[in-house]
Design a protein that fits this description.
By secondary structure, the protein is an alpha+beta fold. The chain contains 13 helices and 20 strands. It has three domains: 41 residues, no CATH class; 206 residues, von Willebrand factor, type A domain (Rossmann fold), CATH 3.40.50; 220 residues, Jelly Rolls (Sandwich), CATH 2.60.120. Strands 7, 8, 9, 11, 16, 17, 18 and 20 form an eight-stranded antiparallel β-sheet that branches. A six-stranded mixed β-sheet has the order 3-2-1-4-5-6, with helices on both faces.
Length: 529
Amino acid sequence: MIMREKFVKTTWFVLLLLSSLTSAYVTDEFVRFLQEQSALNRNETSQSPYTGTLRVTSQEVPSEASSSGSRLNALCRHQRLDLLFVLDGSKSVKAQNFQKMLEFTSEMAGSFAIGRDSTQVAVMQYSGCIRPHIYLNDQTSVRELQSVILGIKYEAKGTATGRALRFASHKMFSRRKGARDVGGGTRRTMIFITDGKWAVKEEISDAVRQLEDKHVERFAIGIGKTARSADLSSIASNPVATHHRYITDYVSLTQVRQDFLQEICREEQPCQDGNIDVINATGYDVLRTVGMETKVGVNRAQGSNDDATAYGVRPQTGVIVLPARSLFKQRLPRKFAIISIFRMLAATPHISWNLLEFVHRNGNVTSALKIAGEEEEVHYVMHDIIGGKHTVKFQKVSKLFRPGYHKVALYVSHIQASLYIDCSSPEHRPLSALPDRNLPDGDIAVARDVVTRDSVAVDIQQLWIVCSATYQSHSDVFDCCDVISLPGGQVRFPQHHVIASTRSQPIEETPRLGDVTGEFDTCAGTVKN
């Protein structure tokens, strides 16, 4: 190492001398080589043997072995995760197979950049008792982290799955142990590995719901003859097909690692075939997609200004629908916006109707932007990933029910919904559960009465679904210059409102349990407090 350090310093000196005295051509590859060697020297001098406590160091990139330069690895290195591995240490697993679990965990951890501002990794083992090995705030270098993982001792006891999942929720994903707010852009992820032989037949649905309440995305792996797909499905997040794997042997963990990395680190391309071309954005003009210009029973109306055209929908028009998957092939994006300009006519301000709804073919509405005229509120209706229905209510919206055109913009992330009315300061509301982003086998409907299920009397000038990757950078989506009937004329979102709508506010977590861990039956001799 000393010889290499001298080589690097000498080469830098020669390089600088050549650059200053001549016009020597220096390749980018050569400069990168020197930078890599310098970084390697710094990393090696900062390493120290593991002494039982993980030492906090500055953020580092994954080891060279895990940095193949592939697109997938590049995406993984830029993830901001709180990543927990829950390992089955029961007697039925066997020591040699538990070691393969550790190798899988080590290789997975090595795919990410480790640090407070990137990915944090935690590891716990469960058997008849629970042993936390690494907490999220035990930050370290990738090499040291992998070394500690590979050195974890096998417990070889019973199996307490439900208690392990509750411990994961209350202890491993607690702020005290380093869990970050999901509102800051962190994704919480758990990878659960079991041989499926559960000695203690516990009801785990409550434990899974606790993880759900903390916005933890869950992956499950079942190995061997005793693992059951139904058990794995009860733990895994939706869509279950991409969040759980059943394999017959531990050697197959290598392929599972690649599959899960692709799911965790995938680069979503929502709205990639969108038809919004007014702004440099991707998304869907729903009115254009549904063909409002040629729709029977739809008449043109004067829009909010001389150059704007609106489309008049009336109860006799008939229901305006289009197949849901004509816009999104499988699921909604993680963040999206519904932006609309419309005016309500006749009795419409006094009834409840959905401006936009996703409806299953069995008639059940799975999500909707609802104008609740009877209460003078706006509701965002959604289902969570385990089938529960939730309604997010916005109440400071009385101006929407006044005559004339109004602009409504609803922004939805996986933890929060924000609503603007006529470009005023937004209302932010936390989501009580993760939305189910899977599209129903059904339709998207426009301007539909909640009770009669007919169309309502409304003139709609604009109805867009915009993907998050676009509206963060384009302030023209936010302005109200196209609604000249508003008091005060042209109004634009202040820049801090743009930021507020795209950066979710922190959500208060469920209060932590006390420091007493006895109810979880932690393994004797554990050094973690």
